[in-house]
Amino acid sequence: MTPVLKITDLHKSFGDVKVLTGIDLTVQKGDVVSLIGSSGSGKTTLLRCVNLLEEFERGTIEIAGEAIGYREEGGRRRRLPERQIARQRAMTGMAFQQFNLFPHMTALKNVMLGLVKTKKLGQDEARAIAEKWLDRVGMIERKDHFPGQLSGGQQQRVAIARAIAMNPQLMLFDEVTSSLDPELVQEVLAVVRDLAADGMTMLIVTHEMRFARDVSTKVVFMDQGRIAEEGPPEAVFGAPKSERLAGFLANSEI
What we know:
Blueprint: E1 5-14, E2 17-27, E3 32-36, H1 43-50, E4 58-63, E5 66-67, E6 70-73, E7 76-79, H2 82-89, E8 92-95, H3 107-117, H4 123-136, H5 152-165, E9 170-174, H6 182-197, E10 202-205, H7 209-215, E11 218-223, E12 226-231, H8 233-238, H9 243-250
Helix pairs in contact: 3-4, 3-5, 4-5, 5-6
């Protein structure tokens, strides 16, 4: 079976600082893979490379068997045209730390926007899809509210609905609870848990260790731009192989 995501020997630097060094990672359909590790270990940069929000210097990223971002031409690596990159970027959905909703649009209009502008759906079809996903994340009763009328947790649920409504092959979550007050964290994590139970393929950056343990099919521990350890959650959390991972978990709430 062709993996939904296959990353091979990925390298990324910011100037002289190496952020990702030789990342290899495979995500199969239905997998829920959580990336854990200290701040600065490269987790968010990895997600942004997958979504082509960051360029990478070496290696390949394939989604559903298609190499994204670059092609080899005459022995040289060239970035693909922006139109092709836009199409490839639509293969993934991404929910960010910040909700990035348009403040002048209602929740419903925020979710409909990509369906109309990018997928070229008619208003009626776009509305039906948007309402389905707003209902799925528990926000249908607030579909006519503007972001400023919603709590942080509610805004994040709308942002998740907006990303999933585009029917991506892979969903990326980047610390989606880090901007929320503690009492709002669980309502967002519950949505992600439900999506995982439905079989959605996900790559999740999170500092919520208990959540990563409960929801993941695989946990990846990143350290200094490398994958230091990976495996099923019971192995990663229950029997860490390295002192570095054991120390990280000892300082985490599980």
